[in-house]
Amino acid sequence: MSRIVTLTLSPSLDVATEVPRLYPDAKLRCQRPSFAPGGGGINVARAIHTLGGTALALYPAGGSTGQHLSQLLDEYGVPRQAVAIQEWTRECLNLTEQSSAEQFRLIMPGARLSEVEQELLLATLQAMPSPDYLVVSGSLPEGLATDFMPRLLGAARARGSRCIVDCSGAGLLQVLEIGGVFLLKPNIDELSAAVNEEIGDSTQLLHIARGLIAAGRCQALLVSLGPQGALLVSAEHSASIAAPTVRKRSTVGAGDSMVAALTLKLAAGADLLEAARYGVAAGSAAIMTEGTELCRREDAERLFAWMQA
User: Fold this and answer.
1) Contact 224, 283 (CB under 8 A)
2) pLDDT digits (tens, 9 = 90+) for 169-202
């Protein structure tokens, strides 16, 4: 099995709770909360662990919230490397209204990283044995140096790591400008915003994806299409992957579960198409779980077997 490291630049302590109904200007009595370590790369490492693999989670952590996050990762049995920072790790709230079953996700800004802390993160990664796969996932914190991502991805590629990136907004734009990434996993809205073009149909989406690959922006794209599954495009593949129909309980962690399963299959030696199908299966499996829970291995394996039949 190849070695996997995930990097989360804006980790979070995720709090999930429920209220009977949301009212303005009233005290809302919540159910007892549950806590989970969160943030893109941390969720990917957790899901890889759940699926039977191993990934090292690298992340900045500060304050008692950062300590709580690290404690929870230890309880999950996920290998980790925390880099101490001054600001407290953020908390994010997943709130479910019981009367409607609607979910509200309150996402706080990530902790700022000082120049020294950014350098320490890069140095910590550089001091590790070179991973076969480096997964950079989640939002970027405010104030991140403009050369941070180029230095990060450039150093990883120089050491022979395949970089898988799942980010949006300014982060995705940066990565596209840098180029050379092994695989990008945006959803269709994130990709549309990044290329500044409304994507109306699958033909247009395929044209855009092929253009990015031809321009050297990445070697492969796995574009999440929500309930419709995903589109995989590379030099060798152009495949629409339909998602299994499942009962929706929560969308939290579906994209992270997809990236986790994809990376795990690649690390085990599978080709890109098989890995992408396993990713779609795990993403669908995550939708079947509640709150901040990610995919379950038995669900992912069952859905993957169904897709392969």
Assistant:
1) yes
2) 888 999 999 988 999 999 999 999 999 999 988 8
